Amino acid sequence: MISQVRTSHIAKLLGVVLLMVVLTLAGCGGGGSGSGKPNLTIGSKKDTDGQLLATMYSLLLQKNGYNVTLKLALGDTPILFQAIQSNQVSMYPEFTGTALSAILKLPATQDAQAAYNTVKQQYEQKYHITWLDPAYGLNDSYGICTSQSKAQSDGLSSLNDLTAHNGQLTIATPPDGLTAAVQPVEHGYNVTFKNVVQEDAELTYQSVQHGDADLNVCYTTDTSIVTDNFVVLKDTQNVFPIYNPAPIIRDDVLSQSPQIANILKPLESKLTTDIILQLIAKVQVQHETVHQVAKDWLTSVGLL
Questions:
Q1: How far apart are CA 275 and CA 270, in angstroms?
Q2: Across the strands, what pairs with 234?
Q3: DSSP notation for 203-241
Q4: Which of 114, 133, 146, 241 makes an SS bond possible with 150, Cβ 3.0 to 4.6 Å?
Q5: In the chain, where are the structural domains located?
Q6: For residues 242 and 199, what is the distance between their CA atoms, to the nearest angstrom?
Q7: Is residue 182's pLDDT more than 60?
Q8: pLDDT by residue (tens digit) across 87-104?
Q9: What would the CATH number be for the domain defined by 142-232?
Q10: DSSP-assigned letter for residue 101
């Protein structure tokens, strides 16, 4: 009788121990970080601004207790889009204009809010991917640039000033800038150029510096604007397409941890085109690491 009681007691104890082990293992599994937060994999494209943004997301989320794997410079847009669809990455920074043209195959727009609303709705419906808050102050788009000396000598600060030199100025542009920048400026400001020269983007700056061109089509986050001390002429008519960045994240990940949106939200209002240019210059010109530049800036604005 005593033996049966002891055997029953031992069996119960073993059952309790086994249950505790199962519960412990269950708490450690399921892709979580042990605190109920999902493990996150954040990717980026090859461009420096994309790497900086992804690193900022990672640092802010790590500060809030998330386990983050950072995969920088994975590839171009199609590769990152495939990666988030196949759950190889949980999230990455994307630009509204890129999503419209490259993924959704829709026309570009100069309306920032309309661009965001469209990509947010379409990505949710078609891909179950959420666009978090965008940085409306950062526009990685096209622009018309010139050297400081040319801007001063010809009185150029905005695209409106081109009308005083109608038909007199030569502009150098990369091939994609012909329809994305030159033609919108001609139509929007009712100006013509004396000559349009197509060449690689980096060569357009040299053409202006050597006097072979008066203006060049530039990307507004191009480091050469800083390193070559160029001026971006103000676009008062908003003729260029909008490219605002935002974190995009898989719905299943966000549903596990909705607070991710609130953690990243304060970042977007602090990002501007001028700031990202300065940070890109630190990486490409001063050769600081992406991680250090992102960390230092986040600290300087009180987010870390």
A1: 9
A2: 158
A3: HHHHHHHTTS-SEEEEETT-THHHHTTEEEPB-TT--SP
A4: 146
A5: 40-139+243-300, 142-232
A6: 23
A7: yes
A8: 999 999 999 999 999 999
A9: 3.40.190.120
A10: I
